Amino acid sequence: MGLPFFRLGKWQKMIGVPLAPSTAWERVENLASSIYPVYEALIKYASKLKKVHIDDTTAKILDFKKELQDSGLKRSGIYTTGFIGLGENRVNLFFTGNKHAGENLGRVLDHRDKQLGPVIQMSDALASNFAHPHDTLACLCLSHGRRNFYDFLPEREKECHYILHLFGKIYFHDKIAKERGFTDEERLHFHQKKSLKIVKKLRRWCLKMFYLKKIEPNEGVGEAIQYLLNNWKGLTQFLRVAGAELDNNIAERLLKRAILHRKNSLFFKTRIGAYVGDIVMSLVETCNSARVNPFKYLLALHQNKKLIHRSPESYFPWNYQETLLHPNPV
Prior knowledge:
The protein is an alpha/beta fold. It has 2 domains: 5-139 and 249-325, no CATH class; 142-239, no CATH class. It contains 15 helices and 5 strands. The protein has helices at 5-14, 21-46, 62-71, 101-109, 142-150, 157-179, 184-194, 196-211, 220-230, 232-235, 249-265, 271-289, 294-303, 305-310, 320-325; strands at 51-58, 79-86, 91-97, 119-123, 136-140. A 5-stranded mixed sheet has the order 3-2-1-4-5, with helices on both faces. A hairpin with a 4-residue loop joins β2 (79-86) and β3. It is globular and about 70 Å long. It starts with a helix and ends in a 5-residue tail after the last helix.
């Protein structure tokens, strides 16, 4: 729940069942030693999925930060990457360290079979999201482009209202496609029929504002227009790639779990602590997406740790109950 152990220790003491923070850490570390094979197996499973969403937020690991500073490396930032893999099942993963989202995505795609073809990658336009050697179908978050105009609504009300209206039509068409249960191909054709003319109108408006010098490129709205034009292909992939989403909002929502933990706990002490946190949060959030009780799931994994180490892929949240009914002999 994103609560540090010393706060939980105080709560335990108040309810009359004292549990020292050090003991709580030992129990969580013991749990992580039982379930980490499932976390590593989920990484391999995620490499086979059709679509991925990634995003970063800052993090803090006290011992590791000091180590990076002492080593003299130019990059001393520490981040938590939120990773979502979408396919038959949804996988939620966290990676905390000094690597950006693109590098962590590369770690996942290292396991991908080349015969599967490039994965559909959704992210924002930061270069750090593409710092990997693998080919992907890069899709950029349309919500970021919309947000740039929304921020300047008080300054340029007429222009921003118009552009936000066009964005709204695109999202309205996407909502209809999802409510009707369209397949990826049907949704693509629907957007090509309904949204393509809106997108063309959007581009014409952007170019017209610059050509007629109604908006300068160096002012706020001008920079928002420049962002659209510079990243046009990635922002409009939903008109060319079946299954491409409009935005990266689900990855941003996933990162709220890591942000809540950072807000309450402030930091991890060591890299091992961060790794343990990644393991537990990844499995809990994957359980939530699969509508599986996280407590019962983690308890079942802990009780069957010998079997898990032999066949971790049989103990994913969506298939572990079937495995428990027909366990493999140790």
